[in-house]
Structures are given as structure tokens and as C-alpha cells.
Amino acid sequence: MEYPAKSIEDVVEELSKLPGIGKKTALRLTLNLLKRGEESTLRLGQVLQKLHIDTKYCSICHNISDYEICSICSSQKRDKSLICVVENFRDVIAIENTGQFFGVYHVLGGVIDPMNGIGPDDINAYSLILRTQNTEIREVIFALSANMEGDTTTFYLTRKIKRNNLTITSIARGIPVGGELEFADEITLGRSLTNRTFYSIQSDVS
């Protein structure tokens, strides 16, 4: 693709690195930014720069936050004895949009995926194990995507956090097997939370 100026080409190249944005879409966005004028473009640049400078991660649940402890963990209205374990920040947003969960979260930042070299040490697994040692935690809900990686992660963590007086559940499989949690509609996701099931480990038969 030929570009009228090197500056246009540079912006297109950077934008096209974002997921879901091809060269044609990147060019359309670039030309739109150029049309908006210098002030608008500079403001966008400042906001993007602040994205990495100002964004923090909650020291308790690892969710994105403006402060050391996020608004959910610090809220007096949330049930701190109920932890919902999710893969990423998008899943927190999806569940919050259902309006049917009033506990707190734990963001793993990924799932165990041996095929791609991702193990328990590469996600926020250890901090979850530490959190659940607190006897005030009464239930852990696993809300991971219904695929092999999600199931592997749930199985591993369940073995690590299992203790007396701790209920371990997973969201009901209203989420289709192989489906990504963030793409589920709010009604389906809400029902999955409401109708969550007990999670049990099958004993090995010798």
C-alpha cells in the first residue's frame, strides 16, 4: 500500500499492530485524526501517554485501578467473603455489567496453558492461594472460559485452595464450551453466576 507521506505510514503501522485493526482500518483512523486537527491529536497522544503512567493494578485483586486498592475491593457494600476468579480485566467488566454479583474479584491475568509455556508462576495464582487462607473467605467462584485452558486452571487452583469451610463453585455452563467469557451476553452470564455449581475433583481410580 502506497502512502502520501511517511508520517501517515508510521501511524498506520502502529495502529495496525492493535488487535482487530487491519491496514485499511488503520489508514481510515489515521486520516480521521489528521482531519480533526492538531489539538485533538495532541490530546489523544497525552491520554495514551498517561495510560501507562497513571494506570495501577489493585494490590489485592490485580484489577486495573486508579489507586493501590481498587474501588471494588475498597467498597463497604461488597461481600469480601465471596471471591470470583476471572482471567482478565474484560471479564470483570462483563460480570459487573450483569448487576448480579456483589462479591469481590481475583484477576489471574491469564490461564495455565502448557502448550504455550504458561504455568502457575506466570499468572496471579499464588496470591489467590494466599487470599483463600483467610478463614473469612467462605466461597470462591471460578468464572473462567469453558475451554481446556480454563478447566486446567480451575482444576489446579481448586487443589491448591481446597480447605474445610471453603465452598468452591464454578459458573453454570450457560457459557458454551469453548466460548470466551467476555463475548457472552449479559443475561446468559448473569444466569451462569446465579446458577453456579459446586466444583469437585474426581478421585483417581487405582
What is the CATH topology of the largest domain? Answer: Dna Topoisomerase Vi A Subunit, Chain: A, domain 2
Unreliable residue runs: none
Helix count equals: 8
Spatial shape? elongated
Oligomer: single chain
Q: Indicate the radius of gyration in whole angstroms.
A: 21 Å
Q: Which CATH-level-2 architecture of the largest domain?
A: 3-Layer(aba) Sandwich
The secondary structure category is alpha/beta
Strands ordered across the widest β-sheet: 4-3-5-6-7
Please describe what this structure looks like:
The chain is of the alpha/beta class and 206 residues long. The protein has 2 domains: 6-51, Helicase, Ruva Protein, domain 3, CATH 1.10.8.420; 78-198, Dna Topoisomerase Vi A Subunit, Chain: A, domain 2 (3-Layer(aba) Sandwich), CATH 3.40.1360. It contains 8 helices and 7 strands, in the order αααββαβαβαβαβαβ. Strand 5 (139-142), helix 7 and strand 6 (167-170) form a beta-alpha-beta unit. Helix 1 (6-15) packs across helix 2 (23-36). The termini are far apart.
Condensed summary:
The chain is of the alpha/beta class and about 210 residues long. The protein contains 8 helices and 7 strands, in the order H-H-H-E-E-H-E-H-E-H-E-H-E-H-E.
How does the SSE layout of this entry go?
Elements: H1 6-15, H2 23-36, H3 38-54, E1 56-57, E2 64-65, H4 71-74, E3 82-86, H5 89-96, E4 104-107, H6 125-131, E5 139-142, H7 148-161, E6 167-170, H8 186-194, E7 197-198
Parallel strand pairs: 3-4, 3-5, 5-6
Antiparallel strand pairs: 1-2, 6-7
